[in-house]
Amino acid sequence: MKANLREWLTQVPGMSRMLQRVLIPFHDSAQYWERRYRVGGSSGAGSYGRLAEFKAEFLNAFVAEQRVECVIEFGCGDGHQLSLAEYPHYIGLDVSKQAISLCRETFGSDDTKSFFLFDPESFVDNQGLLRADLALSLDVIYHLVEDRVFHAYMTCLFQQAKQYVIVYSSNDGNAAASSPHVRHRRFTSWVEVAAPHWRLSRHISNRYPFDPKDPQETSFSDFYVFQRVEVTAKSDALLPPQFGEERCSVL
């Protein structure tokens, strides 16, 4: 009965977002996504329809052209975007136990894919057991509202990549947030300061740029492709105050 009522309410214009705020109160990033998936929510509109197809088209072509053998994704979500992917080998991480369960149900028999529960503030991989040619972050960064979580996540993202990092996100720290679980940042500023061994090699604008009249089929996210480079001098810079007080060097 409750499930049927919830399904009916989501068909009422404007009711879906209102219902989501009632069912999924925001306390912190990790709890929000766990709760969202447990009440039947998805990874979001960006993982479905033409936006998902746009992302898959670019990523599949990149993996093929660059002969990427292994991909690690920080924030695999419900796995729907992954269902469109053509990666030789894949490692999916997520902060939500329910999301990992959904991916296990969908891809459990696929021996080219592995999934792990992820806590960015507790993640340590000094032996590089989970390093991959390409690290992905798709529609995640603007959901990291806490500074400490953002910093820990970005550090893990770049540390686990051998050759490339691809981020699909907004990159405007002045953009207004539409929900409590959204915080836009100029994340490329973090990379410039905290990841001296990486440079931005490509920026691909979204085929369907955000339109407030059609938020389900458009997006404020673009693709940002970073490539590892050699640097002659070791960076010893401190992160700006908004990134926290820790000294950071992502090698």
Mean pLDDT: 84
Instruction: Walk across the major sheet and give the strand order.
Output: 3-2-1-4-5-7-6
Q: Which descriptor suits the 3D outline?
A: globular
Q: Main sheet?
A: 7 strands, mixed
- At CATH level 2, the architecture is 3-Layer(aba) Sandwich
Catalogue the unreliable spans: 1-19, 234-249
Q: How many domain regions?
A: 1
Roughly how many Å apart are the termini?
53 Å
Strand content: 15-25%
Distinct helical segment count: 7
Indicate the CATH topology.
Rossmann fold
CATH homologous superfamily label: Vaccinia Virus protein VP39
Number of strands: 7
Structural class label? alpha/beta
CATH class: Alpha Beta
- Fraction of residues in helix: 25-40%
Care to describe what's here?
The protein has 7 helices and 7 strands; from the N terminus they run ααααββαββαβαββ. With 251 residues, the chain is of the alpha/beta class. Strands 3-2-1-4-5-7-6 form a 7-stranded mixed sheet, sandwiched between helices. β4, α6 and β5 form a beta-alpha-beta unit. The chain is globular and about 45 Å long. It has one domain: Rossmann fold (3-Layer(aba) Sandwich).
Features:
251 residues, disordered N terminus, alpha/beta, seven-stranded mixed beta sheet, Rossmann fold
What is the element layout, followed by pairings?
Blueprint: H1 2-9, H2 15-23, H3 29-38, H4 49-65, E1 70-74, E2 89-94, H5 97-107, E3 113-117, E4 132-138, H6 147-159, E5 161-169, H7 187-194, E6 198-204, E7 222-228
Parallel strand pairs: 1-2, 1-4, 2-3, 4-5
Antiparallel strand pairs: 5-7, 6-7
